[in-house]
């Protein structure tokens, strides 16, 4: 794939920005400008890639990423399904809109204890991630399903196509750019939800490592767990941006 001049400029600026951020991180830690709680970047990397800690981080990543993936898939399916249902059955749409807004307005920190009681500590993160992803996908899909052109809808009506057939063959393809954009912005929401849920007593995961490190003042461990979560979220967000660019070029 050949990059345009504008894309190469954006890529170069992005790389420069990351390098400046890492250099700033290293300098602040080196000169202790933020005290003992801000370690050097090189110290965090040395701690993170110490062979003796591979098992610890490997188990935490496997647990957290499986919760994130599960919450993402569930949230996507529920959000898209709710959007399609409210689109097909118009009288339902105001109610589903209010329900989605109400659920999203409840702070996850208030929902977590309920999920612990109703489900279990180990899947609370996945449940919160599901709710976060559901709302983003629902909003994106609902707005996207209205994007098909009126003359195309009229053509389907003249041909006698049912509402379901028009949804599958016209409205859903027209909504793909919006849905993929929603999938991109749902990625960090899934990471935040899953890791926040792990703070409430999960038996393993990056969130548990963060809480444990914070309570025991293990600063390199805390920063290592935060770095893993942030880097993974940014990588997936970048991949989703590439998918978004492809879909917008193909279907917009």
TrEMBL record:
Keywords on record: Cell membrane, Membrane, Transmembrane, Transmembrane helix, Transport
UniProt-annotated location(s): Cell membrane
Topological relation to the membrane, as annotated: Multi-pass membrane protein
Positions of transmembrane segments: 12-31, 65-89, 101-120, 126-145, 185-202, 222-243
GO biological processes: transmembrane transport
A Gene Ontology term for the protein's cellular component: plasma membrane
Keyword NAD attached: no
Principal location class: membrane
Family per record: Belongs to the binding-protein-dependent transport system permease family.
Family annotation (PANTHER family): ABC TRANSPORTER PERMEASE PROTEIN HI_0355-RELATED, ALKANE SULFONATE ABC TRANSPORTER-RELATED, MEMBRANE SUBUNIT
Protein name as it appears in the record: Bicarbonate transport system permease protein CmpB
């Amino acid at each position: 794939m050949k990059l345009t001049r504008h894309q190469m400029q954006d890529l170069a600026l992005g790389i420069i920005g990351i390098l400046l951020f890492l250099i700033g991180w290293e300098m602040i830690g080196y000169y202790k400008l933020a005290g003992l709680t801000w370690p050097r970047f090189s110290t965090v990397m040395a701690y993170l890639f110490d062979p003796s800690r591979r098992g610890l981080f490997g188990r935490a990543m496997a647990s957290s990423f499986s919760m994130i993936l599960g919450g993402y898939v569930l949230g996507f399916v529920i959000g898209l399904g709710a959007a399609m249902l409210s689109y097909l059955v118009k009288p339902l749409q105001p109610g589903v809109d209010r329900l989605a807004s109400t659920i999203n307005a409840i702070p996850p920190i208030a929902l977590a204890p309920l999920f612990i009681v109703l489900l279990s500590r180990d899947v609370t993160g996945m449940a919160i991630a599901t709710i976060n992803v559901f709302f983003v996908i629902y909003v994106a899909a609902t707005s996207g399903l209205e994007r098909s052109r009126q003359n195309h809808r009229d053509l389907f009506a003249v041909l006698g196509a049912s509402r379901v057939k028009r949804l599958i063959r016209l409205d859903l393809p027209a909504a793909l750019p919006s849905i993929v954009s929603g999938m991109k912005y749902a990625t960090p929401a899934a990471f935040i939800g899953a890791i926040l849920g792990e703070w409430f007593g999960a038996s393993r995961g990056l969130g548990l490592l963060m809480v444990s490190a914070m309570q025991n003042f293990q600063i390199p461990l805390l920063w290592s767990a935060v770095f893993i979560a942030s880097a993974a979220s940014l990588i997936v967000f970048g991949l989703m941006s590439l998918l978004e660019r492809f879909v917008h070029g193909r279907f917009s």
